[in-house]
Specification:
It contains 8 helices and 13 strands. It is of the alpha/beta class. The strands form 3 sheets. It has an 8-stranded mixed beta sheet. It has a 3-stranded mixed beta sheet with strand order 5-4-13. A hairpin with a 2-residue loop joins strand 8 and strand 9. The chain is globular, with a radius of gyration of 20 Å. 39% of the residues are buried.
């Protein structure tokens, strides 16, 4: 082992506790002050892309829609718990209803979700795969699963998965992406500390509750030792609900997927130009006007 490599390892072990202490400063109470300024279900002017995620539980689905703009500035647009058995089609139909909404944008026009991630890591895996298979055109809906590797990339390469749904097997029916949850949670907590609107800042609509913010910030990095070396892992307190955090992770993964479709240096310019064209087109009524309209 070279001296430079050893020094790097020592530096990393020394730095990690400091990073954990810094992340611990993020709290729901501190974030309540930034709630408001725009309505639930509306897109502020800086919003240039909408991304959505679905978390599956035993007796419900939970959905978040997040808007992103230049510098990855983010706005919570929508959050909803869909009660019901995820093994039933009508529950997933409500996901489609949300995904197809034309969300009103400040300044005129509307916006539609570009990518949607469905968590298939634990509950109702085959139902999640089947929903992704039905809506897989242009990666409109993709299956995701959190990676257990601490150094996993933010978003892995998509792999085709067989779908075994109600006794029928569809070969290569859904695309699955592994998500680097460890790194993305670090990113989220770091951005929650940004105090002024602009690059990296996270906004919350006026319907954001304390319970939501508690769920977004409930996890902490805690040290443990593996073969004599300290590593940090994310730990959720017993009884805490962390779906808001998981859904924010999945939406950030979809932002990475979106960036793969564009030249990253010009992506936001292209998205803004498209929104302007849609808004100004005669009779268009905004982006994808055939979609269901939303009114708050």
């Amino acid at each position: 082992l070279s001296s430079s490599s050893a020094a790097s390892d020592v530096y990393k072990r020394q730095a990690e506790p400091w990073e954990d202490e810094s992340l611990a400063k993020v709290s729901a109470d501190g974030l309540m002050a930034r709630v408001g300024g725009y309505g639930h279900g509306t897109c502020p002017a800086g919003t240039l892309a909408l991304l959505m995620a679905v978390d599956t539980q035993d007796t419900w689905l939970e959905v978040s829609v997040w808007g992103y703009g230049r510098g990855d500035e983010a706005w919570r647009i929508w959050h909803q718990k869909i009660e019901g058995d995820p093994g039933q089609d009508h529950v997933w139909e409500q996901v489609t209803t949300i995904r197809e909404i034309a969300w009103p944008r400040e300044g005129g026009g509307t916006m539609k979700v570009l990518h949607c991630a469905v968590d298939t890591g634990g509950h109702y895996t085959n139902e999640g795969y089947e929903y992704c298979r039905q809506h897989k055109q242009q990666d409109a809906v993709v299956a995701i699963k959190g990676s257990s590797q601490r150094n996993a990339p933010v978003l892995g390469k998509g792999t085709k998965q067989d779908v075994n749904f109600r006794g029928r097997v569809v070969k290569n029916g859904a695309t699955l992406y592994m998500v680097g949850t460890h790194a993305l949670k670090r990113t989220i907590y770091s951005r929650l500390k940004v105090e002024e609107p602009g690059p990296g800042y996270i906004h919350f609509d006026d319907a954001t509750s304390d319970d939501y913010l508690q769920g977004l910030t409930c996890e902490r990095l805690q040290p443990r030792y593996v073969k004599g070396f300290q590593v940090l892992e994310w730990v959720k307190p017993s009884g805490a609900r962390n779906e808001p955090l998981d859904l924010k992770v999945y939406c950030l993964a979809m932002l990475e997927l979106l960036k793969r479709r564009y030249n990253r240096s010009t992506m936001w310019d292209q998205l803004e130009a498209q929104l302007d064209r849609d808004r100004e087109a005669p009779g268009s009524g905004g982006l994808l006007s055939k979609s269901k309209r939303f009114s708050s």
